[in-house]
Design goal:
The structure holds two protein chains of two kinds. Chain A is mainly alpha-helical. Helices cover about 75% and strands about 0% of the residues of chain A. Chain A contains six helices and one strand, in the order ααααβαα. The longest helix of chain A is centred in the last third of the chain and has 28 residues, at about 145-170. By secondary structure, chain B is mainly alpha-helical. Classes of the chains: A mainly alpha, B mainly alpha.
């Protein structure tokens, strides 16, 4: 068993355990903290896959910005734990059944369709040079320039939407 | 040498956990977090295949997905705060009217 396979297995155990912890925690703050750990584990997977820029973007944007926003809203609303309701009692068993169906479907497709000869090798030292980042920037700003600009418009629209939503309650006072 | 199928299996497991969270939890904040988990598992599969085929396209797509997730969370959390202001609770079962 090679060393990167061991690293992969340990990290995937941590990733699945933190995802289950996110799902099963009664307290939403614990869920958010479990999810931060999950995002950090996925960032380490990105490093193993030779994508250091995406790994750092994952940590700064997801674990840094998005989850802080989540924690802020959870604590602002006092929504740590909601009282359980008994409306739609059939929903939980149905949800479990549907997710088992989804998992079986994914496993079936993986077992029947996936080709087994593709392997991920450890990234080599050339990734540490500036050249790989430069190559990615060239791809981003040449072949993906239009999606990049559309993303900037999307972020502007989201910014305006959030400001408009937050502004309306000020008028109501 | 890790087979890429292992990454796809991990991605499928994380996606299923996220889908189960969306379907079974009632707290809209946890539903949002589950959606983030599902986006993340898709990103993991993207980066794994980008690494196998030695191309940057997959990584750049992940970059866009991260930007979209950030925009989605900003608007979604603003909406949840607004709903909380209007209804004084954020139980998902009571968000059944459009008039606020």
């Amino acid at each position: 068993m090679s060393s990167d396979l061991i690293v992969f297995l340990v990290l995937s155990l941590v990733a699945i355990a933190t995802a289950m912890g996110m799902l099963l925690s009664k307290n939403a703050v614990y869920s958010a903290l479990f999810l931060v750990l999950n995002f950090v584990t996925v960032a380490i997977f990105y490093l193993l896959l030779g994508a250091p820029f995406i790994a750092m973007a994952q940590i700064t944007v997801y674990a840094g910005a998005i989850m802080v926003l989540f924690l802020f809203v959870i604590m602002l609303l006092g929504a740590e734990s909601l009282a359980p309701t008994d409306s739609l009692p059939w929903q939980k068993p149905l949800a479990r059944l549907l997710s088992v169906v989804l998992a079986v479907e994914a496993a079936y497709l993986l077992l029947t369709r996936a080709s087994s000869n593709l392997v991920v090798s450890m990234p080599d030292a050339s990734l540490n040079s500036m050249d790989s980042l430069r190559e990615m920037a060239m791809a981003l700003f040449n072949s993906f320039l239009l999606p990049f600009e559309v993303t900037s418009i999307l972020l502007l629209v989201a910014l305006m939407g959030a400001i408009v939503l937050a502004h309306r309650e000020k008028e109501a006072k | 040498m890790v087979p890429v199928n292992y990454y796809v299996i991990l991605s499928a497991i994380l996606f299923t956990i996220g889908a189960l969270g969306v379907l079974s939890r009632r707290n809209p904040l946890i539903i949002f977090m589950s959606i983030e988990l599902m986006l993340n598992s898709a990103n993991l599969a993207f980066v794994a295949f980008a690494s196998v085929y030695k191309t940057f396209s997959g990584q750049i797509f992940v970059f866009f997905v991260i930007a979209v997730a950030a925009a989605e969370v900003a608007v979604g959390l603003a909406l949840i705060v607004e709903i909380f202001k209007a209804k004084k609770n954020i139980n998902i079962d009571e968000m059944n009217s459009m008039k606020g």
